[in-house]
Amino acid sequence: MIGSVRGRIASKLPPQLTVDVGGIGYELEAPMSTFFLLPAVGEEVRLLTHLVVREDAHILYAFGTEDERRLFRSLIKVSGVGPKIALALLSGINVEAFALCVQNEDIAALTRVPGIGRKTAERLVVEMRDRLSPPNAGQQIAAAVAAGPSPEAEAFGALIALGYRPAEATRLLKAAGPGTHSTEELIRRALQGAV
After folding, report:
1. Strand pairing of 44-53 and 24-29?
2. Does 134 score more than 60 pLDDT?
3. CATH code of domain 66-147
4. Which contiguous run of DSSP H or E holds residue 92?
5. 8 A C-beta contact, residue 154 and residue 92
6. How far is residue 149's CA from residue 112's CA, in Å, rounded to a whole number?
């Protein structure tokens, strides 16, 4: 198993990136939560990984934190949840907020994540309840629950639903400008930039 990679970012086209490690380019897939924290192309990065071996491919998934990787590994053990759905979840909601959604049986919050339907959300709550340790009380978790899915991730999901490719959606969101914006404002700015 490949546990982590350290090297220079050769390319970034969400959800895929390539990291050059000693002359070998590792193709990785990562959630948007990891993508938003990546340095520029050419910069050095260290990412935790998880290798999924399928009959037709070996896919390496990358994560910025151990908590994200741990949650990904728990999610893919849930019946009917594969790596793509697990990436969508990690792209749309942070680890602490997900734990609280499961603890509070907040199906509505989970279904706001693009790609998660009601049945999948219900299955996640039932099967993940025993796998997650109870979240620590604290301001960070309270803020995560209040925030729910990040505006950037929600806007990204909306642009994908409108038919934009992941790379184009990312470019439009970056062009929308830095700063704190609501999901609606980010989508509006991104669509204005597309015209």
Report:
1. unpaired
2. no
3. 1.10.150.20
4. helix 83-92
5. yes
6. 8
Question: At residue 63, what is the residue type?
Answer: F
How far is Cα 177 from Cα 99, in angstroms, rounded to an integer? 31
Residues of the chain with CATH 1.10.150.20: 66-147
Class of 151-194 in CATH: mainly alpha
List 123's β-bridge partners, or say none: none
In the chain, ranges of CATH 2.40.50.140 domains: 4-63
Tell me how far apart the alpha carbons of residues 151 and 131 are, in angstroms, rounded to a whole number. 27
User: Would the CA dihedral through 112, 118, 122, 124 be positive or negative?
Assistant: negative
Residue 135: predicted pLDDT: 44
Kindly state the average pLDDT of the residues 130-134. Answer: 65
CATH class (in words) of the domain with range 4-63: mainly beta
For 144-163, what is each residue's pLDDT tens digit?
Answer: 444 456 777 777 777 777 77
Confidence (pTM): 0.67
Which residues face 12 on adjacent strands?
17
pLDDT at 159: 76
φ/ψ of 185, rounded to 5, equals -65, -40
Who has greater pLDDT, 35 or 173?
35
Tell me which of 43-47, 50-54, 65-69, 140-144 is least confident: 140-144
Q: Write the DSSP string, 10-25.
A: EEEETTEEEEEETTEE
